[in-house]
Amino acid sequence: MEENQMESWSMEDLIALTDEVQSEDMEYKGKTVHIQWCELVESEEPKMAIPSDDTPEEEKNEYYSQLAAEKVMKMIEKANEKNPDGAHFTPDTWAKIPTTLKYQLSSKVMGTDSDVNF
Fold first, then answer.
1. What tens digit of pLDDT does each residue of 57-108 get?
2. Residue 79, CA distances (Å) to 16, 43, 109 in order
3. CA distances (Å), origin 58, targets 65, 94, 99, 103
4. Which of these, 11, 22, 17, lies nearest to 44 by C-alpha position?
5. pLDDT for 28-42, tens place per residue?
6. What's the first-to-final CA gap in the chain, in angstroms?
């Protein structure tokens, strides 16, 4: 019996991910939306002060939501700089799209999507 073996990442391939523009066409309400992004290195991550332990849960959730939104925008902006011809979203246009689409695209960029359909 043959066992399925998962392929391992090389360090070079992992590092290359931060320089590679990833893109995908996604379906939203019967039409296609194009998104592109790049992985970030730690120095490119958005910086914000971490809420203290006594911060109310609602405020903590808002903080982490804001941090995730900033990270997604930085990933999109990095790809736009590397591939301006593929740019579809800017901070201005991102702020104006429907939140359901924004959540779907954010899930794809952050790698947390699991067949999210809105």
1. 898 888 888 899 999 999 999 999 999 998 999 999 999 999 999 999 999 9
2. 14, 16, 11
3. 11, 24, 19, 19
4. 17
5. 999 999 999 999 999
6. 41
The residue whose two tokens read 């590397």 is: 82
Query: Do the beta carbons of residue 35 and residue 89 sit within 8 Å?
Result: yes
Would you mind telling me the total number of residues written for the chain in this entry? 118
pTM: 0.82
Distance CA 34, CA 74 (A): 17
Contact 77, 109 (CB under 8 A): no
Which two three-digit tokens encode residue 75? 């990933």
